[in-house]
UniProtKB/TrEMBL annotation, chains A, B:
Name of the top EC class for this enzyme: transferase
EC code(s) of this entry: 2.1.1.131
All copies of domain Tetrapyrrole methylase, residue ranges: 5-211
CDD domains hit by this protein: Precorrin_3B_C17_MT (cd11646)
Molecular functions (GO terms): precorrin-3B C17-methyltransferase activity
The encoding gene: cobJ
One Pfam match: TP_methylase
Single Gene Ontology BP annotation: methylation
Annotated InterPro entries: 4pyrrol_Mease, 4pyrrol_Methylase_sf, 4pyrrole_Mease_sub1, 4pyrrole_Mease_sub2, Cbl_synth_CobJ/CibH_dom, Precorrin_MeTrfase
Organism: Candidatus Mediterraneibacter quadrami
Keyword line: Cobalamin biosynthesis, Methyltransferase, S-adenosyl-L-methionine, Transferase
This protein's pathway: Cofactor biosynthesis; adenosylcobalamin biosynthesis
Designated name of the protein: Precorrin-3B C(17)-methyltransferase
Amino acid sequence: MEYGKIYVTGLGPGAADQMTVQARNVLEKCPVIIGYTVYIDLIRADYPDKEFLSTPMRKEADRCRMAFEEAAKGRDVAMVCSGDAGIYGMAGLICEIGKDYPEIGIEIIPGITAASGGAAVLGAPLMHDFAVISLSDLLTPWEKIAQRLRATAEADFVICLYNPSSRKRADYLAKACGMILESRAPETVCGIVRNIGRDGERCEILTLEKLKDTQVDMFTTVFIGNSNTMELNGRMVTPRGYKDV
Amino acid sequence: MEYGKIYVTGLGPGAADQMTVQARNVLEKCPVIIGYTVYIDLIRADYPDKEFLSTPMRKEADRCRMAFEEAAKGRDVAMVCSGDAGIYGMAGLICEIGKDYPEIGIEIIPGITAASGGAAVLGAPLMHDFAVISLSDLLTPWEKIAQRLRATAEADFVICLYNPSSRKRADYLAKACGMILESRAPETVCGIVRNIGRDGERCEILTLEKLKDTQVDMFTTVFIGNSNTMELNGRMVTPRGYKDV
């Protein structure tokens, strides 16, 4: 019997048309689609003939082993994530657990991550060097996150924050903004985007000072401009250089 | 007469199937496609009925005005870039020049950027916080680039380098690696990917010390792992946290 293959597939921010053609082809080809319930629900209606498998949120390793077990039965598996499978997604854990299943092939299918998707909604905030930082301290010590916030703020990066808030971390965005304000102007242009590419998508452009006092949820991506970022006709725009264009 | 609209569209790394469904729909809908010659040539054969317009490499502002002039005639325009239109792409300049054409609508269609596309080829290097830095000093002082390299190396980011080399900047990657080596181990796991998603795609995983002595070209994207990044079955993998999973 031939083994199946695992395609770790990023679905993009949400809307079906923000998926790549390659990702759509994978979903059409694979008889089994595995993912976290919320993402599975986004696509289930479009693929009525598939077998959908899932595990709860913090059971990522179980979900990966489920994918390898299905592939070992000879079935191609799409392991889906929102955004890009390779950016805080499932690609890493699949590669790690793949050590135990050397006979199973793995292919990573990239997707539009929230930094790209959110930037497109706001305008063009990522025209210059940027850093992507997750504020979740579930697996990373807060001191490490704080060091990264301060380092990139001082070096004038555009900063994109993933997981800016949760019920247990309601004050993390305010703390992060406070650290960034140590080296950056209060009027620095910032942007927030909620529900990128999904129903209820909305965005707002605001100053860093105001962002500090803004409550966001876990479906929000936050952008902090560099010293040159500006608001232009309701869009957040970072010029592509520091010299005249 | 109704004005046309400008769709600033990221084509992804190269292969037609790494385009999003949305980008493909835009190309099908717009009668005019504008872009840098190299990207136009990637898609010309697929769209025989379109009008293709182009300008040479450093004439980006002219190319943008060309798009607004066409839209002013009532035609929808796809302004195409490789990768993501919003990451070192044309989205920013279109928004800036759009000040002079307030009557023309602009929509940004995100695409797979080289960081996402290259990561998928290498394995899963971007599972934790990362910084994207361009080594091109055409519009940015080298001192600013150097500050960013040092800051992100010290804060243990995964670092993704765009434009790592050109004929005039053959030694820039070596210089950048030298700066990163001031705070990072010589055996730090790194990866390079050339021609992502195109003919002749190839990748290599190597140490930071070896990367310093490696010659790359302008079609290469470079990944420098964080202190936890490892090589696993020929893949570059960054664990998703600093605590046990």
